Amino acid sequence: MPTVSVGRDRLFAALGRTYSQEEFEELCFRFGIELDDVTTEKAIIRKEKHLEEEADEDEEVIYKIEVPANRYDLLCLEGLAQALRIFNKQEATPSYKLTNITKESMHKMHVKPETSSIRPYVVCAVLRDITFDEASYNSFIDLQDKLHQNICRRRTLVAIGTHDLDTLEGPFTYEALPPTAINFVPLKQTKSFRADELMEFYKSDLKLKKFLHIIEKSPVFPVLFDRNRTVLSLPPIINGAHSAITLKTKHVFIECTATDLTKANIVLNTMVTIFSALCKKKFEIEPVEVVYSDGKSSIYPELSLYNMEVSLSYITNCIGVSLEAEEVTSLLNRMQLHAKQSMSGDKSSITISVPPTRSDVLHACDVMEDVAIAYGFNNIPKSKPASLQPLPLNEFSDLIRAEIAMTGFTEVLTWILCSYKENFSMLKREDDKSTAVIIGNPRSTDFEVVRTSLMPGLLKTVGHNKDHPKPIKLIHGLVDRIMEVIGAPFVSVGVETGYYIKCSDNPEFLTGRQAHIIYNGKKIGTFGIVHPEVLNNFDIPDPCSFVELSIESFL
After folding, report:
1. What pLDDT, in 10s, does the model give residues 157-201?
2. With 60 as the cut, is the pLDDT of residue 477 above it?
3. How far apart are CA 59 and CA 555, in angstroms?
4. DSSP letter, residue 213
5. 302 near 262, Cβ under 8 Å?
6. Which domain of life does the UniProt lineage start with (predicted)?
7. What 3-state class would DSSP assign to 346?
8. Could you tell me if 183 and 118 are in contact, meaning their C-beta atoms sit under 8 angstroms apart?
9. % of the chain at pLDDT higher than 70
10. Are residues 105 and 198 located together in one domain of the fold?
11. Contact predicate 358/336, CB 8 Å
């Protein structure tokens, strides 16, 4: 889950009271988030630089708070504090609205058809008469980074650009041009670069180089201009220096270019709803008209409420408590959902209006979950289902597990994911490009592929436990004992009932010291003496035998 770092004192000021750490942890738990760590800014720096300096008493306390991955409105202090105030009944859910101006008076963004080949969508809005202080300005910038890492998928789906509107002149255009035709001064630079030069320049930039791949091989780059051909941004890489926002900025122009229009709308709505609270006219956003080359146009942001109806009985039955409609609507209002009682036929229902801040609410189950959170999970009485029948596979697995454990074998629970090398080359196996599921963007080289057998994890376990007293006996063995327990007779090769073994030729085992296990005419497993080269790959000094069976085959 994403972690939001906020200053404790500033957060408490926004909440209107102070809390002890225990009280705040309790508030977080009741709201469905978690206080993950308490630290200071200087302590974070000391940890990063491995310094041993002692802490100062006047260091600002930082709360690191884990929030749900789909609650984009909680990714900054302003949104988090507002949600907690509403949860504590300190204020009502805001009603967001568009500035009442004519279509002719709106700023316009004209989209050229060439953009369809690279980033086809753009949505925009204006925050008028906004007032930043240093903390809120930093939070505004930080929210963009959080969204870029989260819903924007590292800018591949959406890229956010924010600009000082007083430095620009509309109407604006969104175009796609050859990189040699784009020339501007990028943010935090003083000299002008061609776009192709920027690609080379940023290859040494630790932050920006990871975004270059998104457009660098395209014959055209997306770019936004104002009326005077001043470059606003080269998405998803960098904004222009000309329109950079500062603490003194009063009118912010926000543009989001995207390959996914739905996510672009969510990102824009998140930015403008949270920070419209800093505008002179709170919770009011100035719309922008986006005009496409075919004459069609749309007005953004889209702030209309999404209405849904949920049965009261569905909510109460899922949670396991009896609640009146009035109590349910009150609980939902605490979760920023406008709710009122209604009737659907002869059944009581709840009509919910979902605000633009709650893009995570998509289904009746999301509404039910919010009721459960507001009601308090600890307040739900514990009960045992009248009938709980385990799945046959799980029941059978438990029986086999117990039987083998009683013979002195050790059970090992290994990861479903492993490295590509462990799954193939370390087992002397070739990748046929059809057996294994490869993870597209792994966080670690230890988790690159979905394992195709249990062998890599088991050998890795043995390799990390070389000092364990021998013999190390793992649960995946004892073929004869398993067959005896389930009542499968040993039969001659070719007989269709019972089980037998026949020679195999797998590279991870010694030749002539391995076999397939055939049960009722179907291969259900393999066993043998592990090849010395494989053992060496996993740093195992002792000989090993290995067996793997598909228990599901016995059902």
Report:
1. 999 999 999 999 989 999 999 999 999 999 999 999 999 999 999
2. no
3. 63
4. G
5. no
6. Eukaryota
7. coil
8. no
9. 96
10. yes
11. yes
| Domain end point (choices 31, 59, 88) | 88
In a domain, 271, yes or no: yes
Together in a domain, 112 and 165: yes
Confidence at 496, pLDDT banded by 50, 70, 90: confident
For the entire predicted model, the pTM comes to: 0.74
Q: Identify the domain containing residue 182 by its residue range.
A: 97-300
For residues 102 and 191, state if they share a domain: yes
What does the pLDDT read at residue 474?
57
Residue 285 in any domain: the answer is: yes
Whether the per-residue pLDDT at 31 is higher than 80: the answer is yes
> Are residues 113 and 68 both part of a single domain?
no
Number of structural domains in the chain? 4
> What is the DSSP annotation of 254-312?
EEEEES-HHHHHHHHHHHHHHHGGGBSSTTEEEEEEEEETTS-EEEE---PPEEEEEEH
Q: For 128-166, list the strands marked E by DSSP.
A: 158-164
538 falls in which pLDDT band (50, 70, 90)? Answer: very high
* One domain for residues 457 and 545: yes
Residue 55 confidence (pLDDT): 59
Residues 419 and 462 in one domain: yes
Q: Residue 29 belongs to what H/E stretch? A: helix 21-31
Asked whether the predicted pLDDT for residue 510 surpasses 80, the reply is yes
Residue 385 lies in a domain: no
Same domain flag for 458 and 547:
yes
**What is the per-residue pLDDT across 399-439, written as a single tens digit (0 to 9) for each?**
888 888 888 888 888 999 999 999 999 999 999 888 899 99
Taking only the tens place, the pLDDT of each residue in 300-324 is 999 999 999 999 999 999 999 999 9
Which residue's entry shows tokens 């720096």?
45
For 495-513, letters b (16+ CB in 10 Å) and e give: eeebbbbeeeebebbeeee
Q: What is the CATH number of the domain that holds 464?
A: 3.30.930.10
Q: What is the CATH number of the domain that holds 329?
A: 3.30.56.10
Q: How far apart are CA 484 and CA 440, in angstroms?
A: 43
Let me know: does 140 contact 273? Beta carbons within 8 Å: no
φ, ψ for residue 282, nearest 5 deg: -60, 140
Least Cα distance to 455 among 504, 508, 517, 419 occurs for 508
Residue with tokens 């269709």: 496
Considering the domain boundaries, does residue 384 fall inside one? no
In 3D space, the residue among 132, 7, 10, 3 whose CA is nearest the CA of residue 68 turns out to be: 3
